[in-house]
């Protein structure tokens, strides 16, 4: 895995630097993919709260599978969909640790639906970062539970037909119905304003855990230009004009 | 002082005494008493009892707790163990110590809740995906069940290989007087510098079974198999009973081994020279001692509560040096000593 080298030319002062809790490994995400922004926002939150030395991440199966390479934190690699169960085990074994999972929509909302719902329902004091890009990215662009109606994927070559494959699963709305969770919110990172809002939400989700408030989940509606077969620069517009029709932004549950 | 306990309860108490502090479960018969015992007692010892939403979740919680460096256990019965197999493969791949108790019932499918030994292949030959082994220990009495649970935690920590207790419904349910092993002092649990405790004053630790580079992954697996070879050298356990002059030796484990002990006593009363070879570690399997026995005993009769699973290992050990007939029962039917004795008499004369 290649390494990021930053050389500051003479006379320049760095004002935008790499978060301390990120390693110098170069991200493996594709051009235009929103994972890069979201991963960085998580690192910024860890830095801001000063919890790098007590944070344990749980890496998913999916495009963020190399997360443990990107962070300077202890990490567990979980089986597909099981991150919330693994995080439960870590947190229960050592409640002093700050434990977060970082999962995609196939991981969290298809194969890991049960683990997610029950961790939320128990009010596990963990932080969940949920990247919803409406597709299976790493395996080659198959239909996800969150794929939009009519959206073409390699397993819905004629577009998702809701009569045979169902509708986009709004799992955050489902979780918000439960008594267990503390904070459920849906954010996006398609422009600067939304990046700042997502940043605050992720920070709050970690702060909640520090304060022992319980289960927090930040869903981030994201773009996967590679598998959408669109130019990287079009990803932001895709989220804004297409994805948000089915995944409206905002807080779904806040318990203070 | 001896106490009267069910096998399930004795295994639970032994786990607590071994320093198990995180236990994750999902209800299933015939291991319910183990779950109940843990729910009552583990929290009093400062431990975590958590009933998960599924066997899949429970084993992944074990994965998390083991990664955090805590002694951890789950228990189930056959169909539930099938569900745990994904997580068990990940535990093995990530080199995490943990103890899994399987109180076997009859299968395949939903089968029934009567005692059986149909999960031998699953326990000893993989079960989950990939090139791995579990340490598999098979008790035949409630006393031995308690002792082997303690041993399982020690071996699992020492080698960083998950360990399974392969019991059955009979052993789980039966009550016997038990001399419980002394609780281990906390200092006896080896330090775990690889555990996820927060990367303070050290480089980050990663618990993972993932490596995209086949050549690098091959080296990881070679190192793992070197550990397995070490376990095969050091941790083979078995019991021999009345084999010195035997003309026929019964080969049986667990509950079947216990019943065969009775068969040996009855056969001896009738003047038949019959002995018992009882594997205690099913992996590593006692190939060498069984081979030595086959050099001098003409008939090794394998008896199992299955269609003949351990039998394959017996034949691998013996390699034609002796006759290796098989007698088994299916579906949760447990043969009586008389039925086995009449089978013995087909092969040996008084």
Report what the structure shows:
With 256 residues, chain A is α/β, with parallel strands linked by helices. Chain A has a single domain, classed as 3-Layer(aba) Sandwich (Rossmann fold), CATH 3.40.50. Helices cover 36% and strands 17% of the residues of chain A. Chain A is built from ten helices and nine strands. In chain A, the strands form two sheets. In chain A, strands 2-1-3-4-8-7-9 form a seven-stranded mixed beta sheet, sandwiched between helices. Chain A has a two-stranded antiparallel sheet with strand order 5-6. In chain A, a hairpin with a 5-residue loop joins strand 5 and strand 6. Chain B is of the alpha/beta class and 350 residues long. Chains A and B meet through strand 1, strand 2, helix 3 and helix 5 of A and helix 3, helix 4 and strand 10 of B.
Concise overview:
The complex is a heterodimer of chains A (256) and B (350). Chain A is an alpha/beta fold and 256 residues long.
CATH superfamily of the largest domain in chain B: Thiamin diphosphate (ThDP)-binding fold, Pyr/PP domains
- Mean of residue pLDDT values of chain A: 96
What is the mean predicted local confidence, pLDDT of chain B?
Answer: 97
Order of helices and strands of chain B: EHEHEHEHEEHEHEHEEHEEHEEHEHEH
CATH class of the largest domain in chain B: Alpha Beta
Find the structural class of chain B using helix and strand composition.
Answer: alpha/beta
Structural category of chain A: alpha/beta
**Could you give a short account of the major beta sheet of chain B?**
8 strands, mixed
CATH superfamily of chain A, by name, is Thiamin diphosphate (ThDP)-binding fold, Pyr/PP domains
Rg value of chain B? 20 Å
The strand count of chain A comes to: 9
Relative strand content of chain A: 15-25%
How many helices of chain A in DSSP terms?
Answer: 10
Helical coverage of chain B, percent range: 40-55%
């Amino acid at each position: 895995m290649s390494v990021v080298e930053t050389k500051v030319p003479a006379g320049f002062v760095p004002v935008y630097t790499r978060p301390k809790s990120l390693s110098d490994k170069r991200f493996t995400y594709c051009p235009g993919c929103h994972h890069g922004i979201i991963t960085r926002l998580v690192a910024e939150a860890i830095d801001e709260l000063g919890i790098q030395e007590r944070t344990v991440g749980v890496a998913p199966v999916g495009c963020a599978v190399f997360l443990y390479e990107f962070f300077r934190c202890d990490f567990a690699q979980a089986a597909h969909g099981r991150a919330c169960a693994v995080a439960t085990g870590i947190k229960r074994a050592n409640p002093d640790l700050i434990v977060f999972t970082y999962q995609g929509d196939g991981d969290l909302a298809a194969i890991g639906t049960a683990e997610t719902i029950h961790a939320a329902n128990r009010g596990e004091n963990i932080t969940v970062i949920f990247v919803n890009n409406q597709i299976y990215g790493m395996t080659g662009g198959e239909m996800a539970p969150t794929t939009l109606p009519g959206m073409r994927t390699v397993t819905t070559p004629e577009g998702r037909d809701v009569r045979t494959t169902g509708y986009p699963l709004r799992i955050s709305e489902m979780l918000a119905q439960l008594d267990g969770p503390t904070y459920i919110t849906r954010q996006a990172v398609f422009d600067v304003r939304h990046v700042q809002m997502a940043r605050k939400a992720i920070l709050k989700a970690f702060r909640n855990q520090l304060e022992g408030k319980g289960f927090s989940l930040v869903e981030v509606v994201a773009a996967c230009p590679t598998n959408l077969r669109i130019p990287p620069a079009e990803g932001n517009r895709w989220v804004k004009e297409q994805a948000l029709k089915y995944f409206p932004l905002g807080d779904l549950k806040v318990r203070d | 002082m001896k106490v009267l306990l069910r096998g399930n309860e004795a295994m639970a108490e032994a786990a607590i005494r071994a320093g198990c502090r995180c236990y994750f479960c999902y209800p299933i018969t015939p291991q319910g008493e183990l779950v109940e015992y843990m729910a009552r007692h583990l929290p009093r010892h400062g431990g975590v009892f958590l009933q998960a939403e599924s066997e899949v979740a429970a084993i992944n919680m074990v994965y998390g707790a083991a990664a955090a460096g805590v002694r951890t256990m789950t228990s189930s019965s056959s169909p539930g163990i099938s569900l745990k197999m994904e997580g068990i493969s990940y535990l093995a791949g990530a080199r995490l110590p943990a103890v899994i108790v399987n109180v076997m019932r009859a299968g395949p499918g939903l089968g029934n809740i009567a005692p059986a030994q149909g999960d031998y292949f699953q326990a000893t030959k993989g079960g989950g995906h990939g090139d791995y082994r579990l340490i598999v220990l098979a008790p035949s009495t409630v006393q031995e069940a308690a002792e082997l649970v303690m041993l399982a935690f020690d071996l699992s920590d020492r080698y960083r290989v998950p360990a399974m207790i392969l019991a059955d419904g009979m052993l789980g349910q039966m009550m016997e007087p038990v001399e419980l092993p002394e609780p281990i002092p906390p200092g006896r649990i080896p330090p775990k510098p690889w555990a996820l405790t927060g990367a303070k004053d050290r480089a980050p630790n990663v618990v993972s079974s993932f490596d995209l580079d086949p050549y690098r992954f091959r080296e990881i697996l070679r190192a793992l198999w070197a550990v397995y070879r070490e376990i095969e050298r050091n941790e083979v356990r078995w019991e021999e009973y009345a084999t010195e002059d035997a003309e026929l030796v019964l080969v049986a484990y667990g509950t079947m081994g216990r019943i065969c002990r009775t068969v040996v006593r009855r056969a001896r009363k009738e003047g038949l020279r019959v002995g018992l070879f009882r594997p205690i570690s099913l992996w590593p399997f006692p190939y060498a001692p069984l081979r030595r026995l086959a050099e001098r005993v003409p008939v090794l009769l394998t008896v199992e509560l299955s269609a003949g699973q351990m039998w394959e290992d017996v034949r691998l050990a013996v390699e034609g040096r002796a006759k290796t007939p098989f007698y088994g029962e299916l579906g949760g039917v447990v043969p009586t000593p008389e039925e086995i004795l009449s089978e013995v008499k087909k092969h040996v004369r008084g």
